[in-house]
Automatic annotation (TrEMBL):
Species in which this protein is naturally found: Novosphingobium aerophilum
Protein's name according to its UniProt entry: TIM barrel protein
UniProt cross-references to InterPro entries, sorted A to Z: IolE/XylAMocC-like, Xyl_isomerase-like_sf, Xyl_isomerase-like_TIM-brl
Coiled coil ranges: none
Gene3D superfamilies per record: Divalent-metal-dependent TIM barrel enzymes
Ranges where the Xylose isomerase-like TIM barrel domain occurs: 31-306
PANTHER family reported for this sequence: HYDROXYPYRUVATE ISOMERASE, INOSOSE DEHYDRATASE
Source taxon at top rank: Bacteria
Length: 340
């Protein structure tokens, strides 16, 4: 029996190929559609030249809608930024922040999106102030719950309380699955080894992560082992990542509308070695989630010093894994090769 959960892709996954000119917007959307991942999520600055400083040309937006229709896809989310530190020595005034969010709400609506993703650093008061405009435009603003934050962190609790107090259903959450990092990613370790981290220190950091040792203790121990530079940096990754509990999403399901399917590596046998997607999918099904899990590949930056990232193949493997976990019978496959 297949799941009500749907598959999608954040086009951020193809950032290397996009930047290098190897994949056009049509390539990105067609590739996702061929894999059966018909929910399309974007970062405006990546997909539309000039956004947000110069707006987006009508012709580019028309092309977006043409491609979405041509490949039978669904616009899911516009992931927006808020440059609240653009002024030297002071934060952007509150009303200007709210106006910026309203601008992205309008852009999301222009693209046919259901959601816009807010960075986790945005204050809840700003989002609450923008919520009435989101309601008018049929958009939900979803704050990304991203490691090192999690659903029991005071900053996220503050957002949850503000959302409930507002009474608006236009405010919600977009959990990033990277906060459920149950094992130290192998591609991270391999990168640090290439940077000169001694094998003994690298092995220690991986084991310390497995044993859930407090990050500050790990950093101190690495220093005492003679670690410097990259070795300290490897230990400091523990400050920003942890194995939080997927079941904590259950208390917030009524406001969870989209999922970032973060992954750093998919093996040839369709396993993400550091993030427990089998458990994650079970929790989402238990909570009655019916939205999209959008692939978000971020392993590229950990391997590009040693090899050319193949983001398309990595996304394909994750989509095969997700299809299996969701009970789909058809195996996602590509029909059109991407030109080198």
């Amino acid at each position: 029996m297949s799941s009500a959960i749907k598959r999608g892709v954040s086009l951020y996954s193809y950032q290397n190929e996009t930047f290098q000119g190897k994949m056009s917007l049509e390539d990105c959307i067609r590739t996702s559609a061929e894999l059966g991942a018909r929910g399309i999520e974007i970062i405006g600055e990546q997909t539309f030249w000039g956004w947000p400083e110069y707006g987006a040309a009508d012709a580019d937006v028309d092309n977006w809608h043409r491609l979405i229709a041509q490949y039978d896809c669904v616009p899911v989310s516009h992931d927006f930024m808020l440059d609240y530190k653009r002024y030297k020595g002071r934060e952007m005034p509150f009303e200007e922040q709210v106006a910026s969010v309203r601008n992205d709400i309008d852009f999301g609506a222009r693209l046919g999106m259901k959601y816009i993703r807010a960075l986790v650093s945005i204050a809840p008061e700003v989002l609450v102030a923008a919520a009435p405009h989101a309601e008018e435009r049929g958009i939900k603003i979803l704050i990304e719950v991203h490691a090192p934050l999690h659903f029991d962190h005071p900053w996220i609790i503050r957002h949850a309380e503000a959302f409930e107090k507002s009474g608006s259903d236009a405010l919600g959450f977009l959990p990033d699955m990277g906060m459920f990092l149950f094992a130290f990613p192998p591609v991270w370790k391999e990168r640090f080894l290439r940077l000169g981290v001694p094998q003994a220190i690298a092995d220690y950091v991986v084991k310390a992560y497995e044993d859930r040792v407090l990050s500050e203790y790990v950093i101190l121990n690495v220093q005492q082992m003679g670690g410097t530079g990259p070795a300290i940096a490897m230990a400091e990754t523990l400050r920003h990542n942890a194995a939080f509990e997927p079941k904590r999403m259950l208390d917030h399901m009524s406001r969870i509308h989209n999922i970032h399917g973060k992954f750093y590596q998919m093996t040839e046998d369709y396993v993400e070695p550091s993030i427990p997607y089998d458990e994650i999918v079970k929790v989402l099904q238990q909570g009655g989630f019916q939205g999209y899990i959008c692939s978000e590949y971020e392993g590229n930056r950990w391997i590009e010093d040693a090899e050319e990232p193949n983001s398309v193949e990595q996304v394909r493997r994750q989509q095969v894994m997700l299809a299996r976990l969701l009970g789909e019978t058809e195996v996602p496959s590509l029909k059109t090769p991407i030109a080198a």
